[in-house]
Write a structure and sequence with these properties.
Elements: H1 11-27, E1 32-35, H2 42-58, E2 64-67, H3 71-85, H4 96-110, E3 124-125, E4 135-136, H5 142-163
Parallel strand pairs: 1-2
Antiparallel strand pairs: 3-4
Helix pairs in contact: 1-2, 3-5, 4-5
C-alpha cells in the first residue's frame, strides 16, 4: 500500500464491485446509471470499461450506464490553482483539500455534532512517514471544503447533462 491506512482493491475487483452496484441500480428500476470516481489511477479506466460493457448489454432495453471521466483530476486542478494563488502548499493525499472536503461533508451530514475529523489529530506530513498523509491537513477549512466539493459537483452535473439527453 502506498499510504498507511488505505484500503486497496485489485482493478478487476473494483470493476466487479462497480458493475454489481450499477446492476443493483438497474434492478431497482433506474434507466440511467452514472459511474464516477473520486480517485486516480486504474479506477478511472475500470469504470469506463464497466460502463461500456454494460451499455452493450442494456442499451437495447433503453437502460444506459454512463461514465463521467476526470472528476478527480478536474478537482485537483481547481485545488492546485487555488493553493498556488493563495500561497498554500500543494498536497497529494489526505492533505488540505481532502481534509477540507471531509470537514465540509461531515458538517453537512452530522451538523453541529461533526464526528469524522478530530482537529487535534491533523498533521502536516509527507509520504513515507507512516501517517498516510502527503500534505498539510492543518490548513483544512470548511470554506475550502465547500469550494472543492462544489467544483466536483459542478463538473459532474455538467458532464451528466452532456451525457443524458431528456427523454
Amino acid at each position: 500500500m502506498r499510504y498507511a491506512g488505505s484500503v486497496n482493491l485489485a482493478e478487476d475487483t473494483f470493476g466487479a464491485v462497480a458493475h454489481d452496484v450499477a446492476l443493483s441500480a438497474i434492478s431497482a428500476g433506474f434507466k440511467n446509471v452514472v459511474l464516477m470516481c473520486d480517485h486516480g489511477g486504474g479506477a478511472q479506466s475500470q469504470l469506463a470499461k464497466v460502463a461500456e460493457n454494460m451499455n452493450r448489454e442494456w442499451a437495447p432495453m433503453g437502460i444506459h450506464v454512463y461514465y463521467v471521466p476526470d472528476l478527480y483530476y478536474q478537482e485537483k486542478e481547481v485545488m492546485k490553482e487555488y493553493m498556488h494563488n493563495h500561497g498554500l502548499p500543494l498536497d497529494a493525499h489526505a492533505g488540505t483539500d481532502d481534509t477540507s472536503e471531509l470537514l465540509y461533508i461531515d458538517k453537512m451530514v452530522n451538523g453541529r455534532s461533526a464526528k469524522w475529523i478530530r482537529r487535534d489529530k491533523l498533521v502536516n506530513s509527507h509520504e513515507g512517514d507512516g501517517t498516510g498523509v502527503d500534505g498539510d491537513q492543518t490548513k483544512a477549512t470548511l470554506e475550502l471544503g465547500k469550494m472543492f466539493t462544489d467544483a466536483k459537483v459542478t463538473f459532474a452535473v455538467k458532464q451528466i447533462r452532456g451525457l443524458i439527453s431528456p427523454n
